Request: fold
Amino acid sequence: MSGRKLKNARKKFRDNRLPDKKKRLGISLKFDPLGRASQAKGIVTKKIQKEAKQPNSAMRKCCRVQLIGSGKEVTAFIPGNLAQKFVDEHDEVLIERIGGKQGRTKGDLSGVRFAVIKVNDQPLERLWTGKIEKGRR
Reply:
């Protein structure tokens, strides 16, 4: 068979595979809260605890964040030992993707795709290690 004939035959069955169709239509980008950006700023609406999936047993500290750019509300994980003390309601936080497989959730946290990295323009890691104090807003 010629190259053109093979190419046209592949076109017929291209949409049978869902990942190919999603990529071509740009569906994942359309519904991604961050869009093409790697990080986004948002306001903390409330602090919550999520239960870890089996076989783990823990209450993971998270917060609901309303993004400034898109206005969408997402759940973000607060990493670090007692780091939730430094995140209060109405704080401005910077979030980034956690880095799960294919943009999905990571580890034992269901429905959480983002992590807090900065609180009021202060790095969260430096806050909970005690290197700096939380800034006033």
